[in-house]
Design brief:
single chain, alpha+beta, Alpha-Beta Plaits, two-stranded antiparallel ribbon, two-stranded antiparallel sheet, 4 helices, about 25% helix, binds iron/sulfur cluster, 4Fe4S_Fe-S-bd
């Protein structure tokens, strides 16, 4: 399928690929971030500040959550959170099936 595309990089197409493969950017050096739910005031400021290329923050149920596989650790959201409740998540665990299904529904077709 790449035989006629020598000039076209077959590099991962970023976020869409991460969502499709449910894997984290493998060259990201920083750990992802996580939101401490008990401290979060669900203002959605972080959601709006996460760069489109990552789009790692979602409203899921009553919570605002960061999907570690989509979070580069950049950390734009940390700088914007009014209550400083976004922390490093060195021990992140893979996102569950039901959350991925939600993401595919809400982010399908997004860049
Ligand atoms: S650290 Fe960056 S990529 Fe991760 S959720 Fe925050 S703004 Fe998005
Ligand atoms: S900016 Fe902070 S307080 Fe607001 S939704 Fe995000 S994590 Fe919660």
């Amino acid at each position: 399928m790449n035989d006629t595309a020598s000039a076209a990089p077959s590099a991962p197409s970023g976020r869409a690929q991460r969502i499709a493969e449910r894997t984290r950017g493998e060259n990201w050096k920083k750990p992802p971030r996580r939101i401490e739910t008990s401290e979060c005031i669900t203002c959605d400021t972080c959601l709006r500040s996460c760069p489109e290329e990552f789009g790692a923050i979602f409203d899921i149920g009553l919570d605002v959550v960061i999907i570690p596989e989509l979070c580069s650790g950049c950390p734009a959201c940390v700088l914007e959170c009014p209550v400083d409740c976004i922390y490093l998540d060195e021990d992140w665990t893979p996102t569950g099936e039901s959350v991925w299904n939600h993401i595919e529904l809400t982010a399908g077709g997004a860049r």
